[in-house]
Design a protein that fits this description.
Structural class: alpha+beta
Helix content: 25-40%
CATH topology of the largest domain: D-amino Acid Aminotransferase, Chain A, domain 1
Number of strands: 22
Bound molecules: 2-(butylsulfanyl)adenosine
Largest sheet: 7 strands, antiparallel
Oligomer: single chain
CATH superfamily of the largest domain: DNA ligase/mRNA capping enzyme
CATH class of the largest domain: Alpha Beta
Strand content: 15-25%
Number of domains: 6
CATH architecture of the largest domain: 2-Layer Sandwich
Shape: globular
Length: 675
């Protein structure tokens, strides 16, 4: 051999990398599989004979040895948000209108990209080496899945192509092509393994697998679609960023295309919609992004998503049905909304029998009457809406007229001069009170188990509660005699209410129901102010200092806390002993029996409270969930366990008794407080 061994190894690595890039990224093949295998075999043999020349970035090192201990949770340096959706070209045109108005320009240049249906990931490269890969998670924290991503051959372990940046993070979608997915399922069926529902589930499942060798057999691919902090790399437009990533050896979808102005964007959307079946991967729409980074920056973000991009979803989102009647619904803020009661019809896979009619003006404008055949549509919002009347033949029903009094309490309705909405201003209106309390206790808010519609109705009817703070005054002895209550459910309810006193502050903020404060805004406010009192004392300028908080949210927050209702509620909650906690940043725990797994607690543990158990599990890198599913890592069962235990048995999920739980805590180095 003429070359020295280190040189030969180096040359083999570069050649294999080059062929990997050609085959997996570019989609071309220069040498036969046999020639490729021969190069790989030679490299392996040389590395085995010279362990001192091993290199983690060698193409032989994509698969980790043994099982991974779990995935640690890591914080994203820049949040991984998602995009808002539009469901029609009209909605897309509205997006373009908003962008043009905010930028003050006549035409905007966009990039239109297929929205590949897979799993979003972030890849960090340092000095050109692939250092870390993460899932999106909740957008703020995700799982570190570097070892699994390293098995994907279209993810280069080293960047190439000239000047490599010192540090760069790119984001993209890991996915499976449709044909490869079918073959994977056929293979699994033959082997007697469970098949996957769809390519996306197969991708999620693969990325969560702890056996890297198994992950390597899954036909995963990636398309990158974003450079994080592109200005650091001198990039001025998104299209330039795509080309830059391609030069570095990353896989970029060749179908991404620039479009000048809305007309060109519309044409591209129409073209793709017609051709979507021909794409080798699953897609449910397109992503439209403002091309210039300067313009992107000027547009900025709302609390949930960027203003510079949007998803355009394919497909029909409309259905035709008959309008049977119009009901009035009093919301928790007193807005009275007319709701269409429809003959049930299936829309995007769900049965729709109610849809919003917004307000009197909308009904008049569209001239909607009971008995009409109407079109319902599922738009960007969750609730379907009635968009138009299709045929209104024969004698039609009378015009709809908004009543002048609240249907629930009879208080005269007031129309806000700036809004089309009418409102019942009676804060003690029973309909509002019920909704406020139901919302307070709901999943996304304080999640008080056992306090749904029925119980709230019962408690309000009995005169036991008339606002959320009253919940904390409830006594078991008053509840037991109520219909359908009994000792057990009464004490469970009291316990659940008690527990909610120390819920995270952001949940409490959602529960209080301040206008424009959803879960994301609540998290931001909780993180910034730390306590309810702190936030209540904040003025508009200090709220506006927070980048994602705009004037609408700021004014809504301050006016709530300076209102009588707001002040009373804060006082009452504090007096009742509500002490929300701030969320501790998740400690990243890489390994151990709890790391990266989800646990469900059921029954009573002898030596510790549920709160303590939850805290210990979270401290050891685990997560807590209230319900058992296939994703549950283990169920921890104390004495007198509930139906969760049966479900765990059915799903063949690990069940730990208290002794097993304590042993695991010991192994994780976490100890319960001595009693
Ligand atoms: S851009 C701020 N581009 O769709 C979010 N996303 O809701 C920027 N996706 O989470 C995302 N193809 O998982 C972008 N070409 C593409 C995409 C794409 C698929 C997914 C991604 C993201 C979701 C958007």
């Amino acid at each position: 051999m003429t070359q020295s061994i280190p040189k030969r190894i180096q040359s083999l690595r570069r050649r294999i990398e080059r062929h990997d890039h050609l085959y997996y990224v570019v989609g071309e093949q220069e040498i036969s599989d046999r020639e490729y295998d021969a190069l790989m075999r030679e490299l392996k043999a040389l590395e085995d004979a010279h362990p001192e020349l091993r290199d983690p970035d060698s193409p032989t090192q994509r698969v980790a040895r043994g099982l991974l201990p779990g995935f640690k949770t890591v914080r994203h340096t820049v949040p991984m948000l998602s995009l808002d959706n539009t469901y029609s070209l009209e909605e897309l045109e509205e997006f373009d209108g908003r962008v043009r108005k905010l930028l003050g320009v006549r035409d905007v240049e966009y990039v239109v990209e297929p929205k590949v249906d897979g799993v979003a990931v972030a890849l960090r490269y340092e000095r050109g080496r692939f250092e870390r890969g993460m899932t999106r998670g909740d957008g703020y924290e995700g799982d570190e899945i570097t070892a699994n991503l390293r098995t994907i051959r279209s993810i280069p372990l080293r960047l190439g192509g000239g000047t490599v940046p010192g540090e760069v993070e790119v984001r993209g979608e890991v996915y499976m092509e449709l044909r490869a997915f079918d073959r994977l399922n056929e293979r699994r069926a033959r082997a007697g393994d469970k098949t996957f529902m769809n390519p996306r589930n197969a991708t999620t499942g693969s990325l969560k697998t702890l056996d890297t060798a198994e992950v390597a057999t899954r036909p995963l691919q990636i398309y990158v679609f974003q450079v994080v902090r592109p200005e650091r790399h001198g990039l001025r437009t998104h299209f330039e960023a795509l080309a830059w990533m391609k030069r570095l050896g990353l896989r970029v979808n060749p179908d991404n295309a620039p479009a000048r102005g809305f007309e060109e964007t519309r044409r591209l959307c129409e073209r793709w919609e017609a051709k979507r079946e021909k794409l080798p991967y699953g897609t449910d729409g397109l992503v439209v992004k403002v091309n210039s980074f300067r313009e992107q920056e000027a547009l900025g973000f709302t609390a949930k998503s960027p203003r510079w991009g949007i998803a355009y979803k394919f497909g029909s989102h409309e259905a035709e049905t008959t309008l049977r009647s119009i009901e009035l619904q009093v919301g928790r803020t007193g807005v009275v909304t007319p709701v269409a009661i429809l003959d049930p019809v299936t829309l995007l896979g769900t049965v729709v029998s109610r849809a919003t009619l917004h307000n009197q003006d909308e009904i008049e404008r569209k001239d909607i009457r009971v008995g009409d055949r109407v079109i319902v549509e599922k738009g960007g919002e969750v609730i379907p809406k009635v968009v138009r009347v299709v045929s209104a033949h024969g004698r039609r029903g009378p015009r709809f007229e908004m009543p002048s009094k609240c249907p629930a309490c009879g208080t005269p309705l007031v129309r806000d001069p700036d809004e089309a909405a009418v409102r019942c201003e009676n804060l003690y209106c029973p309909a509002q009170v019920r909704r406020r309390i139901v919302h307070f206790a709901s999943r996304g808010a304080l999640d008080i188990e056992g306090l749904g519609w029925k119980t709230v109705d019962l408690l309000v009817d009995e005169g036991l509660i008339s606002d959320p703070a009253d919940l904390y005054q409830l006594e078991s002895k008053r509840l037991v005699p109520l219909e359908g209550m009994g000792e057990k459910s009464a004490s469970n309810l009291i316990q659940a209410i008690e527990k909610s006193k120390t819920a995270p502050l952001d949940r409490l903020l959602v529960a209080i129901g301040i206008r424009h404060v959803g879960s994301r805004v609540a998290e931001i406010l909780a993180e910034r102010f730390g306590t309810l009192e702190g936030l209540a004392a904040a003025d508009e300028p200090s709220l506006l200092e927070i980048p994602t908080i705009g004037p609408e949210i700021a004014s809504s927050v301050t006016s709530f806390f300076s209102s009588r209702v707001g002040k009373t509620l804060v006082r009452e909650l504090t007096e009742a002993g509500v002490r929300p906690r701030t969320r501790a940043p998740l400690r990243a725990v890489a390994s151990g029996p709890f790391a990266g797994k989800t646990f469900v607690l059921t029954g009573t543990l002898e030596g510790m409270t549920r709160e303590e158990a939850s805290r210990l599990i979270q401290g050891a890198g685990g997560r807590i969930s209230s319900s058992v599913s296939a994703k549950t890592g283990a169920v921890i069962a104390g004495s007198d366990p509930g139906s969760k235990l049966e479900k765990a048995r059915r799903l063949k999920i690990d069940i730990w008794d208290e002794a097993a739980f304590r042993a695991a805590l010991k192994r994780a180095g976490a100890a319960p407080a001595a009693r």
